[in-house]
Each structure stands twice: as structure tokens, then as C-alpha cells.
Design a protein that fits this description.
This protein is of the alpha/beta class and 275 residues long. It has helices at residues 6-24, 65-70, 90-97, 118-131, 166-180, 190-196, 258-264, and strands at residues 42-47, 74-81, 85-86, 103-109, 145-147, 151-152, 158-159, 185-188, 209-212, 233-240, 249-254. The strands form two sheets. It has an eight-stranded mixed barrel, surrounded by four helices. Strands 6-7 form a two-stranded antiparallel sheet.
């Protein structure tokens, strides 16, 4: 093979570094299938009351958040759903997580009961997480999360929310941003946007994306049409195992290092009790 000239080598290296920087900033999209979850060193979990009610045990079980923190960097905790639903374990879990080295954020499951309840869902979420101590700018607090996905319909089926309206999603995001002064993270997937939002995710433009894609090996989440950026967090399995949590758990990775995660948390890195 002919040897490359020093100039061509320098240009190739420069192009590679510039490309990597643009990917990290979300300005360009890498090829799907670029890397498996194991290639990303910053790991996390997301939990709800379901992780306390695992059918393998006779009754509710606590999560040992200190053990979770020993092998993870962040946690997303379900706080609310719709205009009135509250996760029964959120307040206790959030207090426990706040005493560890885990970055953390609450999430709201968007469940419209009418075509005009985006603001009501936002008010419910904001009031609930504030009562638990979340402020959006404290050490270790990641931006709040909106979870927009299909609804269970029985028999293992999932359906698009009947009353879902893009404008109400926009109102929710605006109200939450106004309340906490930070841009919310959005959890969704490209297939949901295609099937339930007319293949147009423009309402999510400018928001860090937490995308789901399972069992895909090195197939990373597909870009959301209209959102204008690639994923920041990847939920890659629903059946992971984590010391400190009984039964299967959702596992996630962050697209970046711990310094980038710290930058996303406007209050900086966590300051656990005793440090």
C-alpha cells in the first residue's frame, strides 16, 4: 500500500477530530450502528414504583441507592403521570438518591386526558417535584424530563395517546422550562414520532433527547425527524441488572463523559452527604 504523506495524515486527523467535536455538540449525526452501549462509559438507570414491586418478591422492596451509585453515574426517577398521578415511591427515592454521587432528575409521563391539558400536566409535575426537593439548579440535578410515548392498552398492546396534541406538548415544555429555568430533556423514540406525531418531532428541537432502542447491538437510536439533533441519553434495555435493585431494570448510557454530564447539570456535580 502506498504510504500517506505527512500532510495527508495531518488533514485526516484534523478531520476526524473536527467530526468528533461536531457529533458531541449534536450538530451532525453519526452513522447508525456506530457503537454498542458498552462503548459509552457513563451509565445510568431509570426507575419507578415498578422497581419496588417486582413479582419475584413477596412485597415491596427498597432500592439500595448507595449500591446503585457504586456502578452508575445518573438516575431518572418517575414522579408524575397525567394531571394527577403520582409515583408512590418518588419522594422517598429522590431523597435517597440525593444523598449519593448520582446525578438525578425527575420525569413526567405525558398522559393527555383531553386535547388541552398540557399546562395542567406541567403544573402537577412542577408542584410534585418541588415538594420532593428538586429545584433544577442544585448540585447533581439534571434537567427535568418529559416522557412522551405510547400508552398500554392491555394484552401487551400499546397505542398512540388518543388526545395527544403537539401544541399541548409544546405548552408543557414551555411551562416546565419557565418554572426551573432549564431546557427539559425529552424521552421518546423515532418510531413514536413517526406513528403518533405525523413523523414530525419539531416540537422537540433544542431539547436534549433521551431515546429508547432495545436489543439493537451496535444500532444506536434513530434520529427523531425534525428534532435537529442526535441522542444525549440512550435507554438500551428494559431487562438490565444492577446491584441494589431487585429484578430487571431499565439501563441507560450518556453520550459523553462525566465532565459533559456535569455541564448539563447547571448546579454542577453531586455533593453527597458526608463529602
Amino acid at each position: 500500500m502506498p504510504q500517506s504523506s505527512p500532510v495527508r495524515v495531518r488533514l485526516a486527523l484534523t478531520g476526524t477530530l473536527v467530526g468528533a467535536a461536531l457529533v458531541a455538540l449534536g450538530l451532525i449525526t453519526p452513522a447508525v450502528g456506530a457503537a454498542p452501549p458498552s462503548a459509552y462509559p457513563v451509565d445510568g438507570v431509570d426507575t419507578s414504583h415498578h422497581n419496588h414491586e417486582w413479582k419475584g418478591r413477596g412485597g415491596p422492596t427498597e432500592i439500595d441507592w448507595r449500591r446503585v451509585a457504586a456502578v452508575n453515574d445518573f438516575a431518572f426517577l418517575k414522579a408524575t403521570q397525567g394531571v394527577s398521578g403520582k409515583d408512590s415511591w418518588f419522594a422517598r427515592d429522590y431523597a435517597s438518591v440525593s444523598g449519593t454521587s448520582l446525578f438525578r432528575a425527575p420525569y413526567h409521563f405525558f398522559h393527555p386526558r383531553s386535547t388541552a391539558d398540557g399546562a395542567a400536566q406541567a403544573r402537577h409535575f412542577v408542584a410534585t417535584v418541588r415538594a420532593a426537593g428538586y429545584r433544577g439548579d442544585r448540585a447533581g440535578e439534571l434537567p427535568p424530563v418529559l416522557d412522551v410515548e405510547k400508552l398500554p392498552a392491555g394484552g401487551g398492546r400499546e397505542v398512540c395517546p388518543q388526545h395527544l396534541r403537539t401544541q399541548q406538548v409544546r405548552i408543557f415544555l414551555q411551562e416546565v422550562r419557565k418554572a426551573f429555568g432549564v431546557t427539559p430533556i425529552v424521552y421518546t423514540r423515532a418510531s413514536f414520532v413517526k406513528e403518533c406525531m405525523g413523523d414530525n418531532g419539531e416540537v422537540f428541537a433544542g431539547h436534549p433527547l433521551w431515546l429508547a432502542r432495545y436489543g439493537s447491538g451496535s444500532g444506536e437510536p434513530r434520529q427523531v425527524p425534525g428534532a435537529g439533533r442526535s441522542w444525549s441519553f440512550w435507554q438500551h434495555t428494559r431487562t438490565g441488572t444492577v446491584p441494589g435493585i431487585e429484578g430487571p431494570v431499565d439501563r441507560d448510557v450518556f453520550r459523553g463523559g462525566r465532565s459533559e454530564l456535569t455541564a448539563l447539570a447547571k448546579g454542577g456535580a453531586p455533593r453527597p452527604e458526608g463529602r
